[in-house]
Design brief:
Layout: E1 2-4, E2 11-13, H1 21-26, E3 38-39, H2 45-68, H3 73-79, E4 84-90, E5 96-102, H4 105-120, H5 125-143
Antiparallel strand pairs: 1-2, 1-3, 4-5
């Protein structure tokens, strides 16, 4: 059976003291700290069913995103002609016009590959810091 130390909340296996060994050391061996050990209950069947359903739902989302970022006939049909940029140009007579250029499929595939590679990277200290900054900016703008 697992127990939680109500002093620090860390899970400890097997011993039934009111606090964990680390907290006991920190209190110079006096066991009269905050609480007593509380058994940690394993998830019940209904919780496991919910967790499995949520896992299936999340896996379906991952599969859809992976398919959307993988070159195939389906993604080519979906993305070809969807992305373009403009270029100012002149005719031989000197008349200016705007030229619309579709992004080539090869470039779209390269972008998809770069996104897949970026998503597969382990988080770095910099990316985690940027995520924290972005989150705090979102909170400030929603409170503001």
């Amino acid at each position: 059976m697992e127990y939680d130390c109500t002093n620090c909340g860390r899970e400890k296996l097997g011993h039934e003291h009111p606090i964990c060994r680390q907290c006991l050391r920190n209190t110079e061996g006096r066991p009269e700290v905050k609480g007593r050990w509380i058994p940690v209950k394993p998830p019940v069947d209904s919780e496991m069913v919910e967790l499995k359903e949520e896992n299936k739902r999340l896996q379906a989302v991952v599969d859809k995103l992976t398919a959307a970022l993988s070159p195939s006939g389906e993604t080519k049909a979906a993305y070809m002609g969807e992305f373009s940029f403009t270029r100012e140009a002149c005719t031989e007579d000197g008349d200016e016009f705007t030229d619309y250029i579709d992004v080539p499929w090869t470039t779209t595939k390269e972008i998809m590959k770069a996104i897949r590679e970026y998503a597969a990277q382990e988080p770095t200290k910099h990316s985690i810091a940027m995520e924290i900054i972005s989150e705090s900016d979102r909170k400030e703008s929603s409170n503001g």
